[in-house]
Amino acid sequence: MRTSALLMTGALLVPFAAQALPVLSPAPAAASDIAPGNSSAAQLAEARARLTAAIKARDAILAEIKASGASLADIQSAAQAYARANAQVEAAQQAYDAAVAKASGFDSAKKGYDDAASVMPQLTKNAESARARRDAAQASYDKAIAPNPEAAKAAQEKVDAARAKLEESKAAAKVQWDRGALGFYEARNAQKALDVFTTNTEYQGKPLASYTHPGAADDATNLDSMAKTLSLITKINELRAAHQLEPLKVTDYLMAVAQLQVNAQSRTNKMTHIKAFNVAENLASANYPGDELSLKLWYHNEKALHDQGVTDFAKVGHYLNIVNPNYSVTGMAFAPNIQANTFDHTPLYGDNSQPQTVADYSAALQSYMNGLKDEMAQGSSVARTALADATAELEAATKGDPESLEAQIAKTQLETAAREYDEAKAALDTAQTKLTAATAAYESAKAAKQAVQKLAEQLTVAQGERDRAAARAAQLGEFGERLAAAEADVARAQADVDRLSPAPAPKPTPTPGAPGTNVPTPNNPATGNIFYVSNDWTSREAASVFSYGRAGDEVLVGDWDGDGKDTFAVRRGNKIYVKNSVDGGAADVEFAYGRAGDEILVGDFDGDGKDTFAVRRGNTFYVLNSLHGGEADRVVHYGRAGDTVLTGDFDGDGKDTFAVRRGNLYYVKNAIAGGAADTVFSYGRASDATILGDFNGDGVDTLAVRRGNTVYVKNSLAAGEADQVLTYGRTSDQLFVGDWDGNGTDTPAVRR
Question: Pick from 521, 516, 554: which is nearest to 7 by CA?
Answer without folding.
Answer: 516
